[in-house]
Amino acid sequence: MLKNIDPLLSPDLLMVLRSMGHGDDIAIVDANFPAAAMARRLVRLDGLAATDVTNAILSVMPLDDFVPEAAWRMEVVGDPQAEQPIFDEFRAILARHEGSNFRLASLERFAFYEQAKAAYAIVSTGERRLYGNIILKKGVVRD
Amino acid sequence: MLKNIDPLLSPDLLMVLRSMGHGDDIAIVDANFPAAAMARRLVRLDGLAATDVTNAILSVMPLDDFVPEAAWRMEVVGDPQAEQPIFDEFRAILARHEGSNFRLASLERFAFYEQAKAAYAIVSTGERRLYGNIILKKGVVRD
Amino acid sequence: MLKNIDPLLSPDLLMVLRSMGHGDDIAIVDANFPAAAMARRLVRLDGLAATDVTNAILSVMPLDDFVPEAAWRMEVVGDPQAEQPIFDEFRAILARHEGSNFRLASLERFAFYEQAKAAYAIVSTGERRLYGNIILKKGVVRD
Amino acid sequence: MLKNIDPLLSPDLLMVLRSMGHGDDIAIVDANFPAAAMARRLVRLDGLAATDVTNAILSVMPLDDFVPEAAWRMEVVGDPQAEQPIFDEFRAILARHEGSNFRLASLERFAFYEQAKAAYAIVSTGERRLYGNIILKKGVVRD
Amino acid sequence: MLKNIDPLLSPDLLMVLRSMGHGDDIAIVDANFPAAAMARRLVRLDGLAATDVTNAILSVMPLDDFVPEAAWRMEVVGDPQAEQPIFDEFRAILARHEGSNFRLASLERFAFYEQAKAAYAIVSTGERRLYGNIILKKGVVRD
Amino acid sequence: MLKNIDPLLSPDLLMVLRSMGHGDDIAIVDANFPAAAMARRLVRLDGLAATDVTNAILSVMPLDDFVPEAAWRMEVVGDPQAEQPIFDEFRAILARHEGSNFRLASLERFAFYEQAKAAYAIVSTGERRLYGNIILKKGVVRD
Amino acid sequence: MLKNIDPLLSPDLLMVLRSMGHGDDIAIVDANFPAAAMARRLVRLDGLAATDVTNAILSVMPLDDFVPEAAWRMEVVGDPQAEQPIFDEFRAILARHEGSNFRLASLERFAFYEQAKAAYAIVSTGERRLYGNIILKKGVVRD
Amino acid sequence: MLKNIDPLLSPDLLMVLRSMGHGDDIAIVDANFPAAAMARRLVRLDGLAATDVTNAILSVMPLDDFVPEAAWRMEVVGDPQAEQPIFDEFRAILARHEGSNFRLASLERFAFYEQAKAAYAIVSTGERRLYGNIILKKGVVRD
Amino acid sequence: MLKNIDPLLSPDLLMVLRSMGHGDDIAIVDANFPAAAMARRLVRLDGLAATDVTNAILSVMPLDDFVPEAAWRMEVVGDPQAEQPIFDEFRAILARHEGSNFRLASLERFAFYEQAKAAYAIVSTGERRLYGNIILKKGVVRD
Amino acid sequence: MLKNIDPLLSPDLLMVLRSMGHGDDIAIVDANFPAAAMARRLVRLDGLAATDVTNAILSVMPLDDFVPEAAWRMEVVGDPQAEQPIFDEFRAILARHEGSNFRLASLERFAFYEQAKAAYAIVSTGERRLYGNIILKKGVVRD
Fold it and tell me: CATH number of the domain that A89 lies in?
């Protein structure tokens, strides 16, 4: 553990986040997501909620403000407008770290898979709630 | 995740537990323990309580009943008889899986370090409570 | 060995199954199948029957119920409708774990090869019976 | 699989046996033996009986006839003269391959551990019977 | 060395042959063949004749009888019908192990190269005779 | 780069610091120190001052308060009481992060070498000033 | 450190520069650049200015004079003619090492990314200024 | 060093040459050639002349006489007919080992690069003369 | 294969011999010798006679003439003065390469094992004759 | 190659020299020295004179002036006071780089071996002259 750094950020995850640059994506996925099959770099955080991991990541990683969208959830299969309880939790975490206007975009299931496969890393959590997956695009750290 | 197996048992931890044999030790240690420096094999479970990890491990791993002691906690430095709140939690978990007579032995701090270094593996958890460390000796699986 | 876990699930196989996610395939193949040439990840269980290994895998891995088919056998070359004694054994194992309506689909030999090559892992068994091969698609573990 | 070679001899085990020379030991151990912790080279044959594996090994590997003893079982703890059912099975397999006078020697438990640690390889089987462990010393292959 | 197994089958070659399955190819090539540049898996047997190595391989590996051709030699460049002394030796070895009707097919030089590149393994021998190259396709081992 | 984390903490250094536990040492050494020859784990930060690196490390890593000394400088060879300008800089950095009473202990040159060799990691900086070396012992992170 | 060689040239960077040949590119990029995701070979120099690193590299590496352009900066997004303060610093460093007529060419942002991905190596610096990225093409060392 | 073998043939180079077969290429290149970027297998012989290395290689490696050309130099850029002093040295070495009629063919610069990239190995020498590059195609070793 | 170099010297063996220096030992051992268990570096030449391999090695490797003994055979167990047919073959090979006065020394079996374990490499041959083992100490290559 | 750096300093050698610190040794040895058997890190420069390599190394590496001796040659066996022609060449190179008073110390042959084994690296050259070996101790680089 370290001072002033969320303890959910494990040694591997810290190194991954610190190595990422402007425009690199990271996916935080639930316990049923095929993360090992898809990830370029895999970080496991078994037993933790995707929302807690997302909150820990956003405490040190800014999102990209050069592009119209920098955070994506997966759309409910067959009902792209449907809500899930975890979506509002993701929005509240984004608002806390990036401002209340930050928009959580959405991707159809297989488009989400393709973007996750191309991401710099996938963090496999213990999230049990449905649609507990999010992709974040890293922004610029300014002085 | 798998059916009928505690989801806190990560892929690495499951492989370690399945590979261990009669008499091999595993140490479950808190977030401040120097696990990376001491471990022959290191499994990380950041963010989880040592008690939850111990409970998950004992759901699949029996303790050794060929020897008088098969579970050890660390003694409070300077006060070997002192209790800590987590000790009773460890005892309750042992009772649930191994019977109410199972004894939680103790080791002086540096003796605990030596036994952890010789263990088959160390599981580094996110436990924040004081003295949140335990060593378990695997027993025989009978039909 | 571990308590409550079929001992045919070796350390490597347990880790593979635990790492797989929703929609990942695993192939269990007979002793003559070119598994080493085709597998992304190879698990060997020499000397065991494919049916026993399939039964052990299904004791911890649910099959996918989001798609119309989640288990495939290879069709007899030149006679796609033909039965083999092992097919009914596979069906009985599927019924035991997934319900009596679960359908064992079939694939032409070379289509079976292509799907096995793309699978997350291939388990090479000691099965000596003809057409002793099956592919299983992992489902979602629900609470 | 290969013609004229017992199919229980997996690719790894065949390579190990073929690489061993005069005087090298191999241990075949039961499912509870701490093989992963002790082995210089580990071969897993989960699910198989130690007797079947021993029989397969002796079909290709001669025992050492330069020394008075070339096969050892573990003694029953606390009762070195005690018999176990599997001992006679081991003796029958030795007689079949090496002649009816071949002697199965014995080692006290911790002496057995020390010799297993020094062996060229340990084969971890699925043997569930008590004291299902044997060490074999390779002999010379003559024309 | 092992009992009942041709000593020309080295540890690596035994493991390769045991790992191959139905339909996998193995090429046995002469001392001038560009084996290191082409092989997926390379086994070296410097100093040995390709015919002796072929004989040793066929003592444990059956050829494929599901397809019209399962053994190929290279055609003489510029004279596809021409014979070489080693061709009859290859035919005699095939007859000894697979029956007198087994046919040695032929491939034009560059077609032979392409099939060798795709083979499971190439065995580089010390064969000095011209056109001392053969590709064998593994068959099914039946009870 | 990350928010709220000193950018001098490189990906490797962050992972090292996050992996260290209570009582593990880290050495920050100057540009002439034989770091590559001595380090168990080597982190390079060429071009940076040892004082800046020490300051960055102490922004996230607490020092050990269970022991009488947790920070050591090297003594001037032949004059153990002598001061060097960089010593007061080290003391000021320690005071900023650990309180004004925190003591900078000292070690004779070869004792310093021995402790650096046993440290969890050595950070090789571009420090050009004489005696620009310090060893820090990690403390406990409390809530 | 070495005599007569800029100490900012770390062991890894020296080896990379010495291994490069005529026509190979090296990119020196700022602290927000996605270097780890794009680099064939990655050299980290955290905490240093891109201009200081460029100056150190040009003290030992000549630029290519066989081609019309051998140094490129990134164009300001949306304003390809715009200047940034660091551009003149790059020009001054080029003039010092390659002569006052040496031209700093420019590339649109995504063209710069493509050339950086194809470069022999990327050096990730701690540069915080906007557009602090440059690509250099190695020339011939003449007697 | 070995008896009867040119000492310029280093351990790595000897192994590469011995592993090459009929039709494999090897490129010997000058000190400015981008060898590390292009080589499938790289052998370094810093400080040596390309002509000395070529001479040493041809003392053990025959050139291919099945094809019209088996040795290539790079053409002078912009003047394909131009001579360079080193060309006659290459011709003399070829004549010494392969006979006075052996022809040194030529390739345009980028065609030379493509053939070098596809070669079995590139030997990077310390050659300082212009156009000090040659590609050799290995022939058959006859009794 | 290469010109002027015995084709029994495989790529690995050539590299080993070329890397050895004055005073390094190499052991050439028979097919029953426990070479894999003892060797620091293992070279396999299955199927070849130890005498042929020894002859090939001595065609390029001089023996040490700074010490009284530079070639050793193993003594017959229990009869140190006894001769074996292969001993005279070894002596003839030594005489051919090193002169007729070169002495073949002997070592008791376990002393031979100790020297083989310390050797730079062990070459495991297919030698079937009794006591077909020899250790050679490399000498200086003079102009 | 690089500007202002001796081209005999290969990529590996440059990295080794740059990584060494105050007090680390490097041995430059002749073509018969058992370098591969003794070296912690081995750098090969086949074909070059030890004197040229020593000169190149001293162009960038200062010698240690904290200790009475920082350069050692090997003593002639049996005649410790004897001179060899290469000794004066070594002295001249030392004088050119370190001043005319710099002393070339000597070590008995086996003491030289022990110090070479403990050195940070050994550089194996093509030196053919007798006693062409030297050990150098790196000094401090001052501003």
Answer: 3.40.1650.10
**Could you give the number of structural domains in chain D?**
1
Q: Which two tokens stand for residue C115?
A: 């799907």
Annotation marks residue G97 as catalytic: no
Residue F44: beta bridge partners? F124
List, for residues C10-64, the tens digit of each pLDDT value: 999 999 999 999 999 999 999 999 999 999 999 999 999 999 999 999 999 999 9
DSSP H or E run through D37: helix D35-38
Chains with ≥3 CB–CB distances under 8 Å to D: B, C, E, I
Is G64 an annotated catalytic residue? yes
CA–CA separation, C29 vs C57, rounded Å? 13
Q: How many Cα atoms within 13 Å fall on the side-chain side of residue I51? A: 15
- Specify if J3 maps to a domain: no
Residues G26, D134: Cα–Cα separation, whole Å: 60
Active-site amino acid positions of E: 22, 64, 113
Q: What pLDDT digit, counting tens, does each position of A30-88 carry?
A: 999 999 999 999 999 999 999 999 999 999 999 999 899 999 999 998 899 999 999 99
CB atoms within 10 A of CB A86: 20
G97 three-class SS: helix
ipTM confidence? 0.96
E16 lies in some domain: no
Please tell me which of the candidates A8, A52, A126 has its beta carbon nearest to residue B7. Answer: A126
Give the single-character DSSP code of A85.
H
pLDDT at residue I41 in the model: 98
Q: What percent of chain F has pLDDT over 90?
A: 95
Q: Hey, are the CB atoms on C22 and A33 less than 8 Å from each other?
A: yes
Residues in CB range of G37: below 8 A, 6 or more apart: A20, A21, A24, A120
Contact J47/J143 with Cβ under 8 angstroms?
A: no
Q: What's the Cα-to-Cα distance from I113 to each of H125, I26, I39, I55, rounded to whole Å?
A: 42, 12, 10, 22
Contact G42, G122 (CB under 8 A): yes
Cα C121 from Cα D86, distance rounded (Å)? 36
| pLDDT tens digits for range G64-121 | 998 999 999 999 988 999 999 999 999 999 999 999 989 999 999 999 999 999 999 9
- Which of H32, H77, H127 should be substituted to probe chain G, the one whose Cβ sees the most G Cβ atoms within 10 Å? H32
**Sequential DSSP letters for F41-63:** SEEEETT--HHHHHHHHHTT-PB
Of A20, A17, A24, whose CA–CA distance to A58 is shortest?
A: A17
The answer to whether residue F140 sits within a structural domain is: no
Give the distance from residue G81's alpha carbon to the nearest chain F alpha carbon, in angstroms.
28
Q: Which residues of D touch I128 (CB under 8 A)?
A: 143
Place of tokens 């054994």: C89
- How sure is the predictor about F130, in pLDDT bands with cuts at 50, 70 and 90? confident
SS (H, E, C) chain E: CCCCCCCCCCHHHHHHHHHCCCCCEEEEECCCCCHHHHCCCEEEECCCCHHHHHHHHHCCCCECCCCCCCEEEECCCCCCCCCCHHHHHHHHHHHHHHCCCCCCEEECHHHHHHHHHHCCEEEEECCCCCCCCEEEEECCCCC
Within-domain flag for A10: no
Q: At what angle do helices G50-58 and G85-98 cross, to 10 degrees?
A: 10
Query: Under a CB-based contact definition with an 8 Å cutoff, are residues C129 and C28 in contact?
Result: no
**Which residues does residue I43 pair with via DSSP β-bridges, in sequence order?**
I123
Mark yes or no for CB contact J32/I22 under 8 Å: yes
Q: Write down the pLDDT at residue C130.
A: 87
Give the domain extent around C57: 22-134
C-beta of residue C21 within 8 angstroms of C-beta of residue A122? no
Q: State the smallest CA–CA distance between residue E21 and chain C in angstroms.
A: 4
E strands, chain G, where? 25-29, 42-45, 71-74, 105-107, 121-125, 134-137
- For residue C15, the chain B residue with the least C-alpha distance is B11
For residue J68, give every residue at least 6 positions away whose Cβ sits within 8 Å of its Cβ, in sequence order, or none.
Answer: none
